[in-house]
Design brief:
The protein is of the alpha+beta class. The protein folds into two domains: 125 residues, no CATH class; 131 residues, Alpha-D-Glucose-1,6-Bisphosphate, Chain A, domain 4. It has three helices and 17 strands. The strands form two sheets. Strands 1, 2, 3, 4, 7, 10, 11, 12, 13, 14, 15, 16 and 17 form a 13-stranded mixed β-sheet that branches. Strand 16 and strand 17 form a beta hairpin. It is globular.
Length: 267
Amino acid sequence: MKMGLMTLAAVAVLVDGFALGQSVAQVNSTKPVDTPSQTANVVHTQEYDVKVLRVVAAEVSESGSPVHLVEYEYEFRGRSQVNIRGLGDVSAKGRLEYFTFDPHIEFRDAVAGKTIAIVPLQETIVFGGPGLTVDFPKDTELSPTIREGVWTEPMSSFHDNATRVLARYFPSGIAAQEQDKVESYKTQYKQMDGLRDHNVIGEVAVLVSHPFRTEKARFYFHVQYAVRESRTKSPEFHPASREVITAAEDLIDRLIKELQKTGSAQQ
């Protein structure tokens, strides 16, 4: 992962101290409790609360596209689950952290799909110079080959399992996107270990998309990957060799097996 002035961990330390005490707007207690009290990063009603703790602007290194690292807490009372744009169905209460290309967080009814709340995002810290850069692949870099897996538990539990598995394989975070009612989790590039040629640097990133072919007790998800290769003495990328492609395909095989594991199979 390529970074700007500082690593993501360093950003997290700085932003925590800034956002929690100084940048999150406070709820206006003079409003009636049944009227949404909302500013950037905060929304409150009798039915739900959302508090955004961290919004850090970043830039995708290759494309220059703006993206934000967000972290927030939320609770929707009287519901078991909600739908979040880009993530899909999740528990109705939780704390999440991911990258988003959207200027807001949109919560929807998990059954009807109707919008419940939209929370505008405002940066909680602004860099004085070059900021954070992240290394998500372009869509054109993804392999046209689509691998398919199946999930046989409730849809809301797929998010928890998928993000847990992806964090283990790709700890630098995911970007959540939505297009045509399909949610996608895109990882940043990571360097692969175990290549025989120690002068070769092989990197891989993945895109996990769902749901597809939804049936009564299951749905299918798709996995695509991007792979690139460089040399230890040259920063330029070259077409990936067979060794690097094979290493990436082996990683995808393991990843899909873990993505398909239900809660009982993980015990």
